Each structure stands twice: as structure tokens, then as C-alpha cells.
## 1
Amino acid sequence: MSHKAFQADFIYLGNQEKISNGIIELNANSEITHLGENTSSSDIKTKKLNGFLCPGFINTHCHIELSHLQHKVSEGTKLHGFVQDLQKVRKADEATISQAIASAELSMRNNGIVAVGDISNGEDSFQTKSQSPIFFHTFVELFGFDKLQADRIYTRGLELKHIAQNRNLNASVVPHSSYSVSNELMKLIGKTQKNAPITIHNQETEAENSLFQKGEGEIKEMLKRFGLDLSTFKPIGKSSIFNYLAFLNTEVNTLLVHNTFTKPEDIEWAEQNHAHLYWCFCPNANQYIEKRLPNIPQFIDAGVSCTLGTDSLASNWQLSIWAEIETIQKHYPQIKTELLIEMACQNGAKFLGIDNQFGKLEIGKKPGLNWVNQGAVNKLA
Ligand SMILES: [Zn+2]
């Protein structure tokens, strides 16, 4: 492949800037060599495109290892129902699991995704991820509400992190959520050295807040059904975020995922107490599980860093960041496209610590190039 040049109605750079009728040129290595309103030389042939161009998308929340569960879990069951259904259908033979992972990786590439923050509970996805042209950061996700099990679960998590690293994957150990991880395990994760970035599912369901505020609700009932002893659990009278954030390392980039039931006081307190927070939205998964959407304008008004994710095929119809943007635009038409592109590109790259290459169209960088026209994403580089 040789030098390429494209002109489009708009070029979104990946932060909030855009160039009308801009021209972008790339060399054979897909590095950007020119960006502006005119071509760099009169003998360059420019392909004219309707629609807009933007950098490759960053998917900051995915569980590629659950890809074999597409269409297997019922919609609208709320989180406690989803978690229970997931347990029932999760098991499958190795070939089914790895084929589904490989085809999910391919579909993300075709949907213009260039980097993924991906959750792993086991090794199933490591082979595909280590061979992929997509940049993957692996979040080794830990569960354990029983504090007596904290050391054992943590040690097993570190082993899995090292297995991932030995396959040349970037990896960190992370807590699944406030209600599935004991304070003891949360502290062990928070104290881990060289363990960035990290992520946690946050306020995905109202019952998560009820558990920490009042010690009641569907999440509590679910934990009891799992056989956990909750006799020593004490509600704190506040939402979950006030509990776990204190145990995490405030020096490392931390992604709070979903935020469907997050209130302004949660955002304010969290931002005051953590200087490296990012807030990730997976609107299609929220529609799938809870039939709800987070109040995204509330986060934009607060001026916090937001990113986008697809969650897994167990709770989504596809793995496409553009499909997430379309859902947000449908429900919140007042949010400008350039702001959503910033969430999908530069903010995600900053969170993953890969903004030296990804997230912004800039001369000398190789961030991928997407052409979006009439709702369709075409990967140009
Ligand atoms: Zn998730």
C-alpha cells in the first residue's frame, strides 16, 4: 500500500477540534504525514468522502471472553437477574469459546476499534489478544466478598496477571465491583505496585446503592443466594463509591464503569478524592440489562473525563463504539458529536496510557482512521 489522501466534510481530530473539508494524508505505514485544509503537494490524488473522519475508536470496557454468550442471556432482567443467568449459561466447550473470541476480535477491528481495555477472569482470551493488531490492556478481574478468602483470591489473580504479561499483554489486577469484593481484597488490589490502570463496575444498578446505604435490596438477596455470610456486613449510609474508592490507589488512572445510578454528590466526592478518575459509559449494555441509561449530561456538566465501552456480547447486540455513540445521540441529542468523539478517542487513549500513539489525529502518529458515513463505520487505516 502506498501513500493515501482523503478529504471529508469534517475531520474530527479526537479531542474536541474539527476541520471542515479537511484533508488527511497517510504513508504506507498508516502514519499521518499531513493534516489541514489543503493537500501537501499538488500531485497528490485525494479521495473525496461524504460524512466525517476520526481516529480509531478506544473501547475502554469489554469482556471478550464472554463472546460465546451472544443472544444467550435474557434482556431487561436487571443486574441481579443478569448475573444469575450468566452463571447458568457461561460454561461451554473450549472450541466454542475461542471461536467466539476470535470472531469478536475481528468484528471490533471491522468496527474501527484500535484499542481495548478488556476484562479477563481466566486465560481464554489471551491467545487471540496477544496476536491481535488491536492494542489490548487486560484487566484481571477479582471477585470475593468473603474476607477470609482475600489472600487466596489475590494470589491467584497475580498469577493470572503474570501469565498475561508473559504473553506480552499489558495487565493489571482489578476489583469486579463494590458488592463482590471485600474491603480486605480491595485493599490488597489498591496496594499492588506497577498495577495501572485499574477499573471497577460502578453503580450499575440501584440495588448496589441500597446495599451500602441501607443494607438491603436485590444485590443483598443475590449474595445470600450465593451462600455468603453477610452477618458482619455493615451498611455505611452512603452509596458504594464512598466505601471502595478509599481503598484504591489514587495515583493510578481508574475507570468507573456504567454509572447508571450515580448522583451529583457521588461525582463531586469521588473527583475531590481521586485525581485520576475516568467515567465509562456502556449505554447499550445498560439498555440490555436495566432498560435504563446513565445521566450522561450530568457528567459533561461536571466537566469530568468520560470514555465509552461496549461491555460484552452477553449484554450487547454488537461490539461497536459507534453503536454506543448512536444510542447516546438518540437519547441525548443535545450532546455534540465532537464531545462523543473525544470520549471515544482521546479520553480512552489517555485512560489506557496510550495517547502517545492513539486517540488523536496528529502528524507522526498512527492512531487508525475511521470514515463514518450515514451510520456506517469504514476502517481506512
Ligand atoms: Zn462489564
Note: The mean pLDDT is 95.
## 2
Amino acid sequence: MQNQELWQLLEETGVYTTGHFQLSSGRHSGEYLQCARLLQWPDKTELVARAMADRLAGLCPDTVIGPALGGIIIAYELARALGARAIFAERAADNQMALRRGFTLRPGEKVLVVEDVVTTGGSVREVLDLLGGQEVEVVGVTSIIDRSDGEVDFGVPFFPLITMPVRSYPPQECPLCQAGLPVTKPGSRK
Ligand SMILES: [Zn+2]
């Protein structure tokens, strides 16, 4: 799948929206990417996951792991395309990322981390911290969309499918706030 087709899918499914948004990082933006709008379509998600898998097959991961909730579906579809296992990390009672529901990792297992959209990379970093406590080999990080503008360094290779820097501002410098537009918080993180 070519980049042009990927963009077309994101446009068709309404992943890209404009307005006045508070991102999970706390910054404000006039643009927002809601990957759930793509992920609600299994057929389209499968195409995207295959495009990711084509570029990642050389990593030969045993397991693909994503942070809940955004990373669960894409981890599952990517694992299917790579012939790997899919698990997810989620917050435990102490708000720390954890493996629950009986998910385990064996020593030496090759693990690929996937997220739907990387902005600050916070959730991915928490999953990497979690994996750091296990004797696994982290082969890389991937995401459907990279909005980090090259600002993230996970300490392992990062292979985003689509790179899309999005302009954002600290709230006190946000031109949309200054224009008096109401802000919405579209993210899933509290
Ligand atoms: Zn604002």
C-alpha cells in the first residue's frame, strides 16, 4: 500500500478532524487524529496492519504489545499480519502500566510495541518501562501515525507508518484559546 492510499483511508474514515482540542499531553491544537475512526473498520484496519507488517517483517517479533486502549486493536491486527501473538498493557490500581489477565512474557521473547498515534510517546514509554523489567528483547516501536515531529527517542528503533507533524501550543500561547473557541478533550487518557 502506497502512502497516498493510506492518506485516502485516513480521510475516508474521518481520522483527521479540525477544531480546538486539548491533547493528552495538555497542549492545544487545531487538529486531531482519532484513530478509533479507522479501527472501527476491520477491513480497513487489516489493510493498514498489512502495510505496517510489510515494513516490519524483518524484525520477526514473537509478540506485539500495545497500550490499552488505543493500542489493542492495532496490536491484534498487526500480530495477525506478522504471524505473532498480540497482548496489551493496561493501568493497574496504582495507575502503573501492567500485564494483567494472565498475559506473560518468556525470557528472550522478541517483542514489538505498537500504538495507534504517537504524540509525546508517553504510553509507549510506560510499556517500554514495563518490558524493561522482563527479560525480553524489544525489537522496536511502531505506530500508525507519528505526530511527534521527530521529538521522541524510545532508545529502540521507531518505525511509524505515517509521519504527520501537527502544530500544537501550550494552552497559554494557544491562538484558538485567544480567539475564545471552546476546547474539547477528545483523548481517552484522564
Ligand atoms: Zn487552546
Note: The CA atoms of residues 78 and 179 lie 42 Å apart.
